[in-house]
Write a structure and sequence with these properties.
Elements (H helix, E strand, L loop, with lengths): L1 E5 L12 H13 L3 E9 L8 H4 L4 E8 L7 H19 L8 E5 L4 H11 L5 E5 L5 H5 L6 H16 L3 E4 L2 H9 L7 E3 L18 H5 L7 E6 L8 H11 L5 E6 L5 H10 L5 E4 L7 H6 L3 E5 L12 H7 L4 E4 L5 H8 L3 E4 L4 H13 L1 H18 L2 H17 L2
Helix pairs in contact: 3-4, 4-6, 9-14, 12-15
């Protein structure tokens, strides 16, 4: 079997949230005897990170399109770049499409043009559209696309992308529901969650933890941690509300680890409110994931209203692997919230329930055994649902299913 892997923005240019997911996916496909024709993007001035084990593999062939490294806040230019990428990639794909059995396309705001580029060359080749982030739904929910006409325009483009795909793989049941609400037939949708690498992500003891040593953390403190992108889906105002309620507890430290478009505003408001219990730290490299998540007492994932059906926090599975309970805020009634609560992995609340979040943190602060129990619950649940081995089997089964139907 030969797969055309049509990557989205700068997947192999630098480590990012998708890097470990797609690296392990490609490795497992190669290990299962699948050949891969990889077409990706090379951003000018950005160091490449194509793993040597792939670059030297006889069944992995890579072709890259060069484009400028446009800043993320320039949406119009980046969108035009995406269209240009599809046009240039089409020329590369034309050389290999006849040898490929299945096309795997990563999601992006301009994914329709990638799908159309493939369809123009081969109208019957099965296309799997992997949806990591629902566009424009995520942008609308986070408040960055308020214009109704723009929303309608981009929704119409996405419906065209759905129509021209054979299978859509989404990463949560909530996203599946969103697709069905937009008219996508259930039989075209598969749910395969973003996994953690169960061969490398694990709990690290306090004594051996490099992150603990780096920041001279002390065991007499209770650490509430968020580690990831502080972008538009991240509800920093919820963190501010919770931090105010927790100020009387001088041993509770709220660690905010990472970068993002909202970090500067977050820091400014935190200082204005005099919230000395919030500590801001830079993003750590990928190899520190286990140490970072193992260093916290509890993880806090605050999402804005409407986000959970359009996007999913990838860190949930990683935290389960590190046996840490999760406190999250997202839409009431969502599958995500139900998963956290019903399996006693942590506590999930609505986007307007700061007091309940603070109370849950205080409860765990006073009940260390509950932290251990919910951490173990998450580990057992995550091993079944979020492990690399479980979810890669689902992908391989899907590829084999489409291959036999050709």
């Amino acid at each position: 079997m030969r797969i055309l892997y049509f990557a989205s923005v700068d997947f192999y240019q630098k480590p990012n949230p998708s890097f470990h997911l797609m690296s392990t996916m490609i490795k497992d496909l190669l290990d299962n005897g699948v050949s891969i024709e990889y077409v990706g993007l090379a951003l000018n001035g950005v160091e490449k990170h194509i793993p040597e084990e792939f670059a030297s593999h006889k069944a992995f062939h890579c072709q890259l399109v060069s484009l400028p490294n446009t800043p993320k806040n320039n949406f119009v230019k980046r969108y035009v770049d995406g269209i240009t990428y599809a046009r240039k990639a089409k020329q590369l794909i034309s050389r290999v499409i006849g040898e490929c059995d299945i096309v795997f396309i990563q999601s992006s705001p301009t994914v329709l043009y990638n799908i159309k580029a493939v369809r123009a060359l081969d109208k019957k080749k099965p296309i799997i559209y992997n949806i990591q982030d629902m566009f424009p739904g995520s942008s609308i929910a986070s408040g960055v696309m308020p214009n109704k006409l723009m929303q309608q325009f981009f929704y119409s483009l996405q419906k065209n992308a759905y129509k021209n795909s054979d299978i859509m793989v989404v990463i949560s049941e909530d996203m599946k529901t969103k697709l069905m609400e937009q008219g996508v037939p259930q039989e075209k949708i598969r749910v395969i969650v973003n996994w953690f690498d169960d061969s490398s992500v694990h709990e690290v003891s306090w004594e051996d933890n490099m992150f603990v040593k780096k920041y001279q953390m002390t065991s007499d403190k209770f650490y509430v941690q968020y580690a990831g992108t502080m972008g538009y889906v991240f509800d920093y105002k919820m963190v501010l509300q919770v931090a105010k309620l927790l100020m009387p507890y001088t041993d509770i430290v709220i660690q905010m680890i990472g970068e993002g478009s909202q970090k500067e505003a977050f820091i400014t408001e935190s200082k204005k409110e005099g919230l000395s219990n919030i500590v801001f730290l830079p993003l750590e490299p990928q190899e520190m994931v286990s140490d970072v998540y193992s260093a916290c007492s509890v993880c806090f994932i605050p999402l804005k209203k409407g986000i959970i059906g359009n996007s999913v926090p990838s860190k949930a599975g990683l935290l389960m692997a590190c046996k840490r309970p999760i406190i999250t805020t997202s839409d009431k009634g969502s599958f995500y919230n139900s998963m956290i609560n019903s399996n006693r992995i942590g506590y999930a609340y609505g986007t307007d329930e700061a007091k309940q979040v603070a109370n849950a943190i205080v409860y765990l602060h006073n009940n260390k055994k509950e932290i251990i129990e919910r951490g173990r619950n998450g580990f057992d649940y995550g091993k079944q649902l979020y492990s690399r081995s479980t979810n890669m089997k689902k992908y391989i089964d899907l590829f084999n299913e489409l291959y036999t139907k050709r």
